[in-house]
Design brief:
The protein has twelve helices and nine strands. By secondary structure, it is an alpha/beta fold. Strands 7-6-5-8-9 form a five-stranded parallel beta sheet, with helices on both faces. Strand 8, helix 12 and strand 9 form a beta-alpha-beta unit. Helix 7 packs across helix 12 and helix 11 packs across helix 12. The mean pLDDT is about 85.
């Protein structure tokens, strides 16, 4: 759904609510729907009884990056976990990393990369007569543990809990798992490696509600200090920004490792919006950022700013029962203004 279509739907809903403004029950229910994270609806698909209640996470298009959606998914899996529900996940055809044809044998973009967290396929779910349909507000169940309501509000308790959820529910599918193990092993080669994640491109626009941009030179200075003091053998750079890659190459030279088959940008727009002529381009964009995250998590130390990717790497690291020897998070605060809003 495009922005114009969404705006039209918003206007229709506002007009619908306007005519029911005197209905106190309707008004109360609408207000509660926004703040009550526990609301779900019961759907009947087939006639099969279930031994446990199935929770259908139908992730609608959000126009967000891979790990903004992934971290949102973790919060919904947390909801399923605290209520003892068996989750089934679907990403929509409007997902930014979706193709118009099956990939890895599935039309569900979630399954391009992952196994179903509850061990039930979408087809099997449709045989059951009692399925709870989740909604995005269910993810608000994590607010008491994450230390705030903002998209970049995180604390160690949140990292720990999402690590537990990841260990329990998130599993790469066999194809992606084999690919990552081979490529990460070849790149790191068992060396003591410092990981650096540089978030560039659209972060340079300092969108409202997003972290204040960390300049490439600030990442470089922090990385140099940790690299020297930690006696690291290699430095792995994960970045969406060509300028950052060139700067780190000039500084670290042969000590720097990175993936060469990654789409990067030298501008201020996210690579998520890129369109290049290669087969399964959108799927591969997801593979690239997911592989970067798993590689960041496989390293011994991490230098990063506030980003959805670096949060995911910290969660993944802890989910494996490990911790970084060195962890430096450059936090310059969150943009709070009215000049530019998140697109």
């Amino acid at each position: 759904m495009g922005r114009v279509s969404r705006k039209i739907e918003q206007i229709k809903f506002a007009w619908y609510c306007y005519h029911r403004g005197n209905d106190s029950r309707f008004v109360k229910n609408v207000k509660n729907a926004e703040v009550d994270f526990s609301q779900v609806s019961l759907e009947k698909f087939g006639d099969k009884p279930g031994e446990s209640m199935i929770y259908f996470i139908d992730m609608k298009e959000s126009h967000s990056g891979f790990f903004a959606d992934h971290n949102r998914l973790l919060s919904l899996l947390y909801f399923a976990d605290i209520y003892g529900l068996r989750p089934v996940v679907q990403y929509s055809s409007g997902y930014c990393y979706a193709e118009k044809h099956p990939v890895n044998g599935t039309e569900n973009p979630f399954e391009y990369y992952f196994k179903q967290p509850g061990g039930i396929s979408l087809e099997e779910m449709k045989e059951y007569k009692c399925v709870l349909l989740g909604r995005k507000e269910n993810g608000n169940a994590v607010i008491p543990i994450k230390g705030g309501t903002g998209g970049y509000a995180r604390n160690e308790q949140y990292i720990d809990e999402m690590a537990r959820i990841t260990a329990k529910y998130i599993c790469l599918n066999d194809k992606i798992d084999r690919q990552f193990k081979q490529e990460i092993g070849q790149l790191l080669d068992g060396k003591n490696t410092l990981a650096v994640h540089v978030r560039g491109t659209d972060f340079k626009q300092n969108f409202n509600g997003h972290p204040v941009q960390v300049r490439t030179e600030e990442y470089l200075k922090a990385a140099q200090k940790v690299f020297e003091e930690g006696a690291y053998e290699r430095i792995f750079l994960a970045t969406d920004d060509s300028e950052a890659l060139n700067l780190f190459k000039s500084q670290f030279q042969e000590s720097l490792v990175y993936y060469e088959d990654v789409v990067r940008s030298d501008g201020n727009d996210t690579v998520m919006h890129s369109e290049i002529q290669r087969q399964n381009h959108h799927y591969l964009l997801g593979v690239e950022v997911l592989r970067d995250m798993y590689t960041l998590a496989a390293c011994n130390g991490l230098v990063a700013g506030l980003s959805q990717v670096s949060f995911a790497a910290r969660i993944q690291k802890k989910s494996s029962g490990d911790n970084y020897k060195d962890l430096v998070v450059i936090d310059k605060g969150i943009n709070s203004h009215r000049n530019k809003n998140c697109p």
